[in-house]
């Protein structure tokens, strides 16, 4: 296999060193690469944390605290903005990010301790803000499930973002919390094309399976927002209206979108992926991304980084608003309540 060739079942094409590494390595085609590379197995290590709740003050993010049960994500979405975070543990944002994972089994206990802390201020806790809480390893580790159990007992509001149908496993908890205004879910759908999805996000649930999860969540009384995330110029942007239509057909209450973001190493990883899979579209896609970010490949400015700026971004925004109106969807799901919160250890009544 030559350098720059895709690996079956993985998103990134390469495994470039962390930006903090003292040395770098570069693969060179000497004509002796085997046709099939060795299979990259997924490994999971335990990460010990002193705290698990992360807080932010970003004005363009609709939550101020989040929890990530895992570091790294086996879904392998090539566009994932969380990939650069693997560099902080000395690993590559490329293949390492999706094969060398870290689990936080003490997260439920640490969360319970945080909720019981004197002076804790209750506000919705976001799961899936960085990596997917329902990625495949959750089937075995069940950390997300345990976190939800802590939140359920404390009557603490939670919002979840995922690309996985595994969320259906926890419908018993989510439906009960949603009935009290304590839970909503965002299901991310990038494309309806299963062939493209297999290349973009190789180990996430198939698009049709995510839509079924939307319908099953909605049937259980859980408000669902479909996120078209990210919209990729010249590759998936033509699907916007169709995804909004499908969201409405499957009983979502709202929809949103995020324009492709390419911070730090994601820029080179995504460009490499484009060249490997869609070489004839690569230049035009990257040109449009640059056009939508003020002449840069990525504009980190609040209010612009998620939706872009300029004519192309304005056109996307107008198309999206019209699609929402056509299908009677809102941009935001119903708000969550915080006044039912009872800190762990204090006597509380049943939800119903």
UniProtKB/TrEMBL annotation:
Please list the residue ranges that the record marks as compositionally biased, kind Basic residues: 1-10
Native species: Methylococcus capsulatus
Query: What InterPro entries does the record tag this protein with?
Result: Elp3/MiaA/NifB-like_rSAM, MJ0683-like, rSAM, rSAM_sf
**Elp3/MiaA/NifB-like radical SAM core domain: residues covered:** 63-288
Under Gene Ontology molecular function, one entry of this record is:
iron-sulfur cluster binding
CDD domains the record matches:
Radical_SAM
| Protein name according to UniProt | Elp3 domain-containing protein
Annotated region Disordered: the residues are: 1-38
Q: Which UniProt keywords apply?
A: Iron, Iron-sulfur, Metal-binding
Classification via SMART domains: Elp3
Superkingdom of this protein's organism:
Bacteria
UniProt cross-references to SUPFAM superfamilies, sorted A to Z: Radical SAM enzymes
Biased composition (Polar residues) is annotated at 15-24
């Amino acid at each position: 296999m030559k350098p720059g060739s895709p690996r079956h079942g993985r998103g990134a094409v390469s495994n470039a060193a962390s930006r903090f590494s003292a040395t770098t390595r570069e693969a060179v085609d000497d004509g002796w690469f085997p046709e099939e590379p060795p299979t990259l197995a997924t490994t999971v290590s335990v990460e010990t944390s002193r705290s698990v709740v992360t807080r932010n003050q970003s004005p363009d993010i609709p939550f101020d605290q989040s929890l990530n049960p895992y570091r790294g994500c086996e879904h392998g979405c090539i566009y994932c903005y969380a990939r650069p975070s693997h560099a902080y543990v000395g690993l590559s944002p490329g293949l390492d990010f999706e094969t060398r994972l870290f689990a936080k089994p003490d997260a439920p206990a640490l969360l319970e301790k945080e909720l019981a802390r004197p002076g804790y201020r209750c506000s919705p806790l976001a799961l899936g803000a960085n990596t997917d809480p329902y990625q495949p390893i959750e089937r075995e580790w069940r950390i997300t499930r345990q976190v939800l159990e802590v939140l359920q007992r404390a009557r603490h509001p939670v919002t979840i973002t995922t690309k996985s149908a595994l969320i259906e496993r926890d419908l018993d908890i989510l439906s009960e919390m949603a009935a009290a205004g304590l839970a909503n879910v965002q299901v991310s759908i990038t494309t309806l094309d299963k062939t493209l999805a297999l290349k973009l996000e190789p180990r996430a649930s198939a698009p049709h399976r995510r839509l079924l999860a939307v319908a099953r969540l909605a049937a259980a009384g859980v408000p669902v927002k479909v996120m078209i995330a990210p919209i990729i110029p010249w590759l998936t942007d033509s699907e916007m209206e169709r995804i909004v239509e499908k969201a409405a057909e499957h009983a979502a209450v709202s929809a949103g979108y995020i324009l492709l973001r390419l911070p730090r190493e994601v820029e080179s990883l995504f460009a490499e992926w484009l060249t490997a899979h869609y070489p004839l579209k690569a230049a035009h896609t990257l040109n449009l991304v640059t056009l939508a970010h003020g002449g840069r490949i990525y504009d980190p400015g609040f209010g612009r980084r998620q939706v872009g700026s300029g004519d192309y971004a304005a056109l996307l925004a107008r198309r999206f608003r019209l699609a929402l109106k056509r299908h009677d969807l809102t941009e935001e799901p119903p708000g969550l309540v915080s006044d039912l919160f009872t800190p762990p250890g204090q006597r509380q009544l049943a939800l119903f």
